[in-house]
Amino acid sequence: MSIESRAATTEDDGESDARSEAESGSHSESDSASAVGADGTADAETAGRRAADAAPIAASDLTKRYDETLVFDGLDLRVDPGEVCCLLGPSGCGKTTLLHLLAGLEDPTDGRVEIDGEAVTGPDYRWGVVFQDPLLYPWLSVRENVEIGPRLRGGEPDADHVDELLELVGLDGFADADTADLSGGMAQRASLARTLANDPDVLLLDEPFSALDQLTKMELQDELLRIVDELGVTAVFVTHDIDEAVYLGDRVAIMGPVPAGIEHVERIDSETRSRDDEAFLEERAATFEQLEAVGLE
Q1: Sign of CA dihedral 121, 204, 270, 282
Q2: What confidence tens digit (pLDDT) does each residue in 199-216 have?
Q3: Which helix (H) or strand (E) holds 206?
Q4: Rounded-to-integer distance, Cα 220 and Cα 247, Å
């Protein structure tokens, strides 16, 4: 399955348009076109998010196999600069494996991943990963956790920048706190700030809110959208939650049972990103229908 989204700048007003295509050797041309909508045009809010220095992500002809188990074969994916692309599917469909390949945490059996035109051959601070578990260092304070990335790269952390990041994620006043004293939501905020301290070109997030209560999850979803907009980074977000995918994503890539890979892409056109408005409910219903169409309950 091949999924592409391209950003273009108009000469008249300089606004960005996103045009997406889906192609598949096992699907009809009309099915592929319907995966992203007839015109594939992004709304103004999406276009405005795309900063000039944000990095595109491109995966070409990816195949991943573990011994005799084929996870996916010939998978293509392009994520536009500044776009939030959600990978949606049940456990075991390969979405975390795909994220690991994008991050360089695993090698593909075949194929290639590029971020901003550079081949991904291993982990790099420029493509920051946020995991489901915050993975904070318990012997360090919140501030020291955020500073660890620049220190490991041989630099001296900028104290003012660290303060700005802690404020950005809502942890101002907790710089000197022990990580053991943080709630689950606060720990994820600290983890996100630690990743952002490396000034990554892209954010790769693997179900970071799945272990949190619903109210905290919704609050952090809002915070993540604000941070992505403010910093102008590209993001890929793994989830098995339909509401989360529709709320966060500019596009939702739906993955089928292995080894299907990405079966369908749903473009999210809601301009309000309000969870209770009609547009959101329609997008949710359309996404659920596509989950059913690829055989997922």
Answers
A1: positive
A2: 999 999 999 999 999 999
A3: strand 202-206
A4: 12
Q: Can you give the pLDDT at residue 10?
A: 33
Burial category of 262 from C-beta neighbours within 10 Å (exposed 0-12, middle 13-18, buried 19 and up): buried
Averaged pLDDT, 186-209: 96
Amino acid identity for residue 51 in this structure: A
Phi, psi of 149 (to 5 degrees): -60, -55
- Alpha carbon distances (Å) from 28 to 3, 22, 34, 89, 293: 14, 10, 10, 22, 15
pTM for the whole thing?
0.82
Cα separation, 297 vs 289, in Å, equals: 10
Q: Residue 84 and residue 67: Cα distance in Å, rounded?
A: 32
Please say if the pLDDT value at position 236 is more than 70: yes
Helix/strand/coil (H/E/C) assignment for every residue in 95-120: HHHHHHHHHCCCCCCEEEEEECCEEC
The pLDDT value given to residue 73: 97
Task: Give the burial class of 120: count Cβ atoms within 10 A of its Cβ; 0-12 exposed, 13-18 middle, 19 or more buried.
Answer: buried
pLDDT at 35 over 90: no
Beta strand segments in 145-201, E: none
User: Crossing angle of helices 142-152/159-168, nearest 10°?
Assistant: 130
Residues linked to residue 178 through DSSP beta bridges, in sequence order? 141
Q: Confirm if 290 and 254 have CB atoms less than 8 A apart.
A: yes
State the Rg of the chain over Cα: 19
